[in-house]
Amino acid sequence: MFDPFSQEFFDDPYKFYRCMRTEAPVYHCDQYDFYALTRDEDVAAQFAVEVITAMLGIPEDHVQQVRLWTDTSLHREPGQIEMAERGRQAITESTAYFYDVVQQRRAQPGESDLFSLLMAAEIEREDGGITGLSDFEIMGFASQLGGAGAETVTKLLASAGYLFARHPDQWAKLPDDRSFISAAVEELLRYDNPVHYDVRRSVKDSTLHGVTIPIGKPVFLMLASASRDPEAWTDADVRHRAEPHRGPESEAGLRHPQLPGRRARTDGNRHRAGEVARLHASL
User: Fold this and answer.
1) pTM for the whole structure
2) What was the pLDDT predicted at 32?
Protein backbone atom coordinates (compact mmCIF):
# COMPACT_ATOMS: atom_id res chain seq x y z
CA MET A 1 0.00 0.00 0.00
CA PHE A 2 1.29 3.46 -0.93
CA ASP A 3 1.44 5.74 2.10
CA PRO A 4 3.33 9.01 1.43
CA PHE A 5 3.75 9.50 5.19
CA SER A 6 5.34 6.11 5.92
CA GLN A 7 8.98 5.34 6.76
CA GLU A 8 9.06 2.68 4.04
CA PHE A 9 8.16 5.26 1.39
CA PHE A 10 10.82 7.69 2.70
CA ASP A 11 13.45 4.93 2.54
CA ASP A 12 12.81 3.96 -1.11
CA PRO A 13 9.97 5.69 -2.95
CA TYR A 14 10.99 4.39 -6.37
CA LYS A 15 10.02 0.80 -5.67
CA PHE A 16 6.50 2.05 -4.99
CA TYR A 17 6.51 4.08 -8.21
CA ARG A 18 7.52 1.11 -10.34
CA CYS A 19 4.73 -1.01 -8.93
CA MET A 20 2.09 1.72 -9.15
CA ARG A 21 2.94 2.67 -12.75
CA THR A 22 2.44 -0.94 -13.81
CA GLU A 23 -0.38 -2.16 -11.60
CA ALA A 24 -2.28 0.96 -10.51
CA PRO A 25 -1.46 4.05 -12.61
CA VAL A 26 -4.46 5.73 -10.99
CA TYR A 27 -4.03 4.70 -7.36
CA HIS A 28 -6.72 5.32 -4.77
CA CYS A 29 -5.64 5.44 -1.14
CA ASP A 30 -8.54 4.28 1.01
CA GLN A 31 -6.89 5.40 4.23
CA TYR A 32 -6.59 9.08 3.26
CA ASP A 33 -9.06 9.13 0.35
CA PHE A 34 -6.82 10.60 -2.34
CA TYR A 35 -5.80 9.56 -5.86
CA ALA A 36 -2.23 9.34 -7.21
CA LEU A 37 -1.10 9.52 -10.85
CA THR A 38 2.32 7.99 -11.53
CA ARG A 39 2.73 7.74 -15.33
CA ASP A 40 4.48 10.46 -17.30
CA GLU A 41 1.60 10.78 -19.77
CA ASP A 42 -0.79 11.63 -16.92
CA VAL A 43 1.36 13.99 -14.88
CA ALA A 44 1.04 17.59 -16.08
CA ALA A 45 3.96 18.69 -13.95
CA GLN A 46 4.74 21.19 -12.72
CA PHE A 47 15.60 29.94 -5.36
CA ALA A 48 17.43 29.57 -2.86
CA VAL A 49 16.16 31.46 0.15
CA GLU A 50 18.91 34.08 -0.11
CA VAL A 51 17.85 35.03 -3.63
CA ILE A 52 14.15 35.25 -2.85
CA THR A 53 14.58 37.21 0.37
CA ALA A 54 16.87 39.63 -1.48
CA MET A 55 14.11 40.11 -4.05
CA LEU A 56 11.67 40.81 -1.22
CA GLY A 57 14.06 43.28 0.36
CA ILE A 58 14.49 41.27 3.59
CA PRO A 59 17.55 42.45 5.60
CA GLU A 60 20.48 40.03 5.40
CA ASP A 61 20.51 39.39 9.14
CA HIS A 62 16.92 38.09 8.94
CA VAL A 63 17.39 35.77 5.96
CA GLN A 64 18.28 32.61 7.86
CA GLN A 65 15.39 33.13 10.26
CA VAL A 66 13.01 33.05 7.29
CA ARG A 67 14.63 29.77 6.22
CA LEU A 68 14.28 28.31 9.73
CA TRP A 69 10.60 29.25 9.88
CA THR A 70 10.08 27.50 6.55
CA ASP A 71 12.00 24.39 7.59
CA THR A 72 10.10 24.14 10.89
CA SER A 73 6.69 24.53 9.28
CA LEU A 74 7.46 21.82 6.69
CA HIS A 75 9.02 19.29 9.08
CA ARG A 76 7.18 16.00 9.53
CA GLU A 77 8.11 12.84 11.37
CA PRO A 78 7.32 9.47 9.69
CA GLY A 79 3.57 8.94 9.80
CA GLN A 80 2.87 12.55 10.76
CA ILE A 81 0.33 14.33 8.56
CA GLU A 82 -0.72 17.40 10.49
CA MET A 83 1.62 20.27 11.33
CA ALA A 84 3.16 20.08 14.81
CA GLU A 85 2.83 22.87 17.38
CA ARG A 86 6.35 24.09 16.56
CA GLY A 87 5.32 24.40 12.94
CA ARG A 88 2.22 26.39 13.81
CA GLN A 89 4.31 28.66 16.00
CA ALA A 90 6.75 29.19 13.12
CA ILE A 91 3.84 30.19 10.87
CA THR A 92 2.58 32.64 13.50
CA GLU A 93 6.03 34.21 13.94
CA SER A 94 6.69 34.48 10.20
CA THR A 95 3.25 36.01 9.61
CA ALA A 96 3.89 38.62 12.31
CA TYR A 97 7.29 39.35 10.79
CA PHE A 98 5.94 39.83 7.27
CA TYR A 99 3.13 42.02 8.67
CA ASP A 100 5.73 44.31 10.26
CA VAL A 101 7.69 44.45 6.99
CA VAL A 102 4.54 45.37 5.06
CA GLN A 103 3.76 48.20 7.50
CA GLN A 104 7.33 49.48 7.19
CA ARG A 105 7.09 49.48 3.39
CA ARG A 106 3.72 51.20 3.51
CA ALA A 107 5.29 53.98 5.56
CA GLN A 108 8.54 54.09 3.59
CA PRO A 109 8.28 52.40 0.15
CA GLY A 110 11.40 51.17 -1.59
CA GLU A 111 12.16 51.38 -5.29
CA SER A 112 12.67 47.84 -6.55
CA ASP A 113 11.95 45.30 -3.80
CA LEU A 114 8.94 43.06 -4.37
CA PHE A 115 7.07 44.30 -1.31
CA SER A 116 7.08 47.86 -2.68
CA LEU A 117 6.23 46.70 -6.20
CA LEU A 118 3.30 44.68 -4.89
CA MET A 119 2.02 47.67 -2.97
CA ALA A 120 2.11 49.76 -6.13
CA ALA A 121 0.34 47.10 -8.20
CA GLU A 122 -3.33 47.22 -9.10
CA ILE A 123 -5.46 44.21 -10.05
CA GLU A 124 -8.90 43.68 -11.46
CA ARG A 125 -11.27 42.01 -9.01
CA GLU A 126 -14.05 39.58 -9.87
CA ASP A 127 -16.61 42.40 -9.85
CA GLY A 128 -14.58 44.33 -12.41
CA GLY A 129 -13.26 46.88 -9.92
CA ILE A 130 -9.60 47.89 -9.84
CA THR A 131 -7.89 47.90 -6.45
CA GLY A 132 -4.49 47.53 -4.88
CA LEU A 133 -3.45 44.43 -2.93
CA SER A 134 -4.42 44.21 0.73
CA ASP A 135 -1.85 43.72 3.49
CA PHE A 136 -3.12 40.16 3.88
CA GLU A 137 -2.63 39.38 0.16
CA ILE A 138 0.89 40.82 0.14
CA MET A 139 1.82 38.93 3.30
CA GLY A 140 0.48 35.69 1.86
CA PHE A 141 2.45 36.11 -1.35
CA ALA A 142 5.64 37.01 0.54
CA SER A 143 5.24 34.07 2.91
CA GLN A 144 4.72 31.64 0.05
CA LEU A 145 7.56 33.04 -2.04
CA GLY A 146 9.87 33.26 0.98
CA GLY A 147 9.71 29.50 1.38
CA ALA A 148 9.50 28.54 -2.30
CA GLY A 149 12.48 26.50 -3.36
CA ALA A 150 14.30 26.66 0.00
CA GLU A 151 14.02 22.87 0.25
CA THR A 152 14.19 22.02 -3.44
CA VAL A 153 17.50 23.78 -4.14
CA THR A 154 19.07 22.36 -0.98
CA LYS A 155 18.01 18.83 -1.89
CA LEU A 156 19.12 19.22 -5.50
CA LEU A 157 22.61 20.31 -4.46
CA ALA A 158 22.82 17.51 -1.89
CA SER A 159 21.84 14.97 -4.54
CA ALA A 160 24.37 16.45 -6.96
CA GLY A 161 27.16 16.13 -4.39
CA TYR A 162 26.20 12.53 -3.60
CA LEU A 163 25.78 11.39 -7.20
CA PHE A 164 28.93 13.08 -8.51
CA ALA A 165 30.88 11.57 -5.59
CA ARG A 166 29.70 8.17 -6.79
CA HIS A 167 30.58 9.03 -10.40
CA PRO A 168 33.80 11.10 -10.22
CA ASP A 169 34.49 10.44 -13.90
CA GLN A 170 31.38 12.40 -14.81
CA TRP A 171 32.28 15.24 -12.44
CA ALA A 172 35.78 15.43 -13.97
CA LYS A 173 34.32 16.15 -17.41
CA LEU A 174 32.43 19.30 -16.41
CA PRO A 175 35.44 21.66 -16.04
CA ASP A 176 36.53 20.72 -19.57
CA ASP A 177 33.22 21.72 -21.14
CA ARG A 178 30.97 23.82 -18.91
CA SER A 179 28.27 23.86 -21.56
CA PHE A 180 27.32 20.48 -20.07
CA ILE A 181 26.42 22.02 -16.70
CA SER A 182 22.86 22.99 -17.64
CA ALA A 183 22.19 19.55 -19.10
CA ALA A 184 23.70 17.92 -16.00
CA VAL A 185 21.30 19.89 -13.80
CA GLU A 186 18.40 18.84 -16.03
CA GLU A 187 19.37 15.20 -15.64
CA LEU A 188 19.78 15.57 -11.86
CA LEU A 189 16.26 17.00 -11.72
CA ARG A 190 14.93 14.07 -13.72
CA TYR A 191 16.84 11.30 -12.01
CA ASP A 192 16.46 12.49 -8.40
CA ASN A 193 13.69 15.08 -8.42
CA PRO A 194 13.65 17.13 -5.18
CA VAL A 195 9.86 17.44 -5.57
CA HIS A 196 8.41 13.94 -5.43
CA TYR A 197 4.79 14.93 -5.75
CA ASP A 198 2.46 17.86 -6.08
CA VAL A 199 -1.15 17.84 -4.90
CA ARG A 200 -4.15 19.25 -6.69
CA ARG A 201 -7.90 18.80 -6.32
CA SER A 202 -10.03 17.44 -9.17
CA VAL A 203 -12.42 20.03 -10.59
CA LYS A 204 -14.53 17.49 -12.49
CA ASP A 205 -15.06 13.75 -12.76
CA SER A 206 -12.15 12.34 -14.80
CA THR A 207 -11.52 8.80 -16.01
CA LEU A 208 -7.97 7.51 -16.58
CA HIS A 209 -6.96 3.90 -17.16
CA GLY A 210 -10.46 2.75 -16.28
CA VAL A 211 -10.52 4.56 -12.94
CA THR A 212 -12.86 7.50 -12.36
CA ILE A 213 -11.59 10.24 -10.07
CA PRO A 214 -14.62 12.03 -8.61
CA ILE A 215 -14.86 15.80 -8.48
CA GLY A 216 -13.36 17.40 -5.36
CA LYS A 217 -10.88 14.61 -4.55
CA PRO A 218 -7.18 15.24 -3.75
CA VAL A 219 -4.93 14.05 -6.59
CA PHE A 220 -1.22 13.39 -6.04
CA LEU A 221 0.82 14.12 -9.19
CA MET A 222 3.82 11.84 -8.66
CA LEU A 223 6.50 13.89 -10.42
CA ALA A 224 9.44 11.72 -9.40
CA SER A 225 7.64 8.65 -10.68
CA ALA A 226 6.86 10.29 -14.02
CA SER A 227 10.55 11.18 -14.32
CA ARG A 228 11.41 7.46 -14.13
CA ASP A 229 8.61 6.22 -16.40
CA PRO A 230 10.21 3.81 -18.95
CA GLU A 231 7.40 4.57 -21.39
CA ALA A 232 8.64 8.16 -21.62
CA TRP A 233 12.37 7.94 -20.89
CA THR A 234 15.21 5.85 -22.27
CA ASP A 235 16.94 3.85 -19.51
CA ALA A 236 14.74 5.65 -17.00
CA ASP A 237 16.47 4.29 -13.87
CA VAL A 238 19.98 5.12 -15.13
CA ARG A 239 21.55 8.51 -14.43
CA HIS A 240 23.05 9.81 -17.68
CA ARG A 241 26.00 12.16 -17.87
CA ALA A 242 24.60 15.38 -19.24
CA GLU A 243 21.79 14.90 -21.70
CA PRO A 244 18.10 15.18 -20.88
CA HIS A 245 16.30 12.23 -22.46
CA ARG A 246 13.65 14.17 -24.24
CA GLY A 247 13.37 16.87 -26.90
CA PRO A 248 12.58 20.56 -26.72
CA GLU A 249 8.93 20.21 -25.76
CA SER A 250 9.75 21.39 -22.26
CA GLU A 251 12.65 22.62 -20.15
CA ALA A 252 13.09 19.51 -18.04
CA GLY A 253 11.21 16.83 -19.90
CA LEU A 254 8.06 17.31 -17.83
CA ARG A 255 5.32 19.45 -19.27
CA HIS A 256 4.55 22.76 -17.56
CA PRO A 257 7.29 22.69 -14.89
CA GLN A 258 6.15 24.33 -11.66
CA LEU A 259 7.87 27.07 -9.64
CA PRO A 260 9.98 24.85 -7.34
CA GLY A 261 11.36 22.89 -10.29
CA ARG A 262 12.12 26.05 -12.23
CA ARG A 263 13.84 27.73 -9.28
CA ALA A 264 15.80 24.60 -8.41
CA ARG A 265 16.92 24.47 -12.03
CA THR A 266 17.96 28.14 -12.16
CA ASP A 267 19.81 28.12 -8.85
CA GLY A 268 21.19 24.65 -9.47
CA ASN A 269 22.87 25.89 -12.63
CA ARG A 270 24.34 28.89 -10.79
CA HIS A 271 25.57 26.89 -7.80
CA ARG A 272 26.93 24.05 -9.88
CA ALA A 273 28.78 26.41 -12.26
CA GLY A 274 30.30 28.23 -9.30
CA GLU A 275 31.25 24.99 -7.58
CA VAL A 276 32.89 23.60 -10.71
CA ALA A 277 34.86 26.83 -11.16
CA ARG A 278 36.04 26.91 -7.51
CA LEU A 279 37.06 23.25 -7.38
CA HIS A 280 38.73 23.36 -10.79
CA ALA A 281 40.75 26.44 -9.75
CA SER A 282 41.95 24.66 -6.60
CA LEU A 283 43.22 21.61 -8.47
Assistant:
1) 0.54
2) 82
